[in-house]
Amino acid sequence: MADVKRRLGVHTSIAGGIHLSLERARELGCSTIQIFSHNPRQWLANEIPAGASAQFRELRRTYGIDPVYIHASYLINLASLDSAILERSIQLLARELDLADLLAADYVVLHTGSASQDNARDARRRAVGALRVVAGTKAWKAKLLLENTAGERGDISSRMEDLSEIIRETESALIAGVCIDSCHAFAAGYDLSREQGPAQLADEVERYLKADSVKLIHLNDSKKGCNSHVDRHEHIGQGSIGIEGLKRFVNHPVFRNIPLVLETPKKSEEDDPRNIKAVREFLGE
Ligand SMILES: [Zn+2]
Ligand SMILES: [Zn+2]
């Protein structure tokens, strides 16, 4: 039976006011959403006026958009060898969590970090230390999800085993689980275009992560090939994973009930509706 309740959304712009992201999601027929709470390429995260956050919370209830995911800034690097960047990263992550609570968002999605001058094991240790500092700052309602990365130079979190290690060693309820990005997994060597690809990824999820750890899927096709270590998202069905691979992935028993958020390219007004339609088709909706 088709799961008609599958949560589906897109990463949506907050341009013009944070509540407008919900209007855009609503227009696209989304039941979940991911946003940036501020410009993800600036260290400064502007205040969200009280009126705007209240409006966001109310609109989200009215539209039944759930869960709400906030993607953390790309500048955060918890594995940085530069102590000033590490310190700013810790502060900005705490700020992301403050803003998430202000918006009553459920999760903050984080790329843990990278350190190309260092070995990955030591870099992960540094990230664990930083995560512990953040977790010790205060208790937030919003929880962190660590996202698998594409295995670009210095990446510390492209394998399920890496994510597991970071979560286990951080030992904090701040981290609720992981977000799995299909493009990143493919770029890191999980061949989702092949018949057995989704099952192989699912096996690793079950082997290394606790049951119910996957709280979000970023559903993106990939411009580059499997094991390319390049993070370039493509429209659904137009990349190297392809429609059949993505369909098998989202319908695999281990991934079947997990909310989907698209981070596909937006070059025209038609892109989001077309990508959403393609996903709905293979969900059988
Ligand atoms: Zn992603
Ligand atoms: Zn990406």
Provide a quick synopsis of the model.
With 285 residues, the chain is α/β, with parallel strands linked by helices.
Distinct small-molecule ligands in the complex: zinc ion
Distance between the termini: 10 Å
List the helices and strands in order.
EHEHEHEHEHEHHEEEHEH
Decide which structural class fits the backbone: alpha/beta
**Total separate domains:** 1
Rg calc: 18 Å
Q: Please report the number of helical segments.
A: 9
Major beta-sheet overview: 8 strands, parallel
Q: Any idea what the shape is?
A: globular
**Beta-strand segment tally:** 10
- The average pLDDT score comes to 96
Q: What is the CATH architecture term?
A: Alpha-Beta Barrel
Let me know the CATH homologous superfamily. Answer: Divalent-metal-dependent TIM barrel enzymes
Unreliable segments of 5+ consecutive residues: none
The neighbouring-strand order within the major sheet is 1-10-7-6-5-4-3-2
Strand content: 5-15%
CATH topology term:
TIM Barrel
User: Class in CATH?
Assistant: Alpha Beta
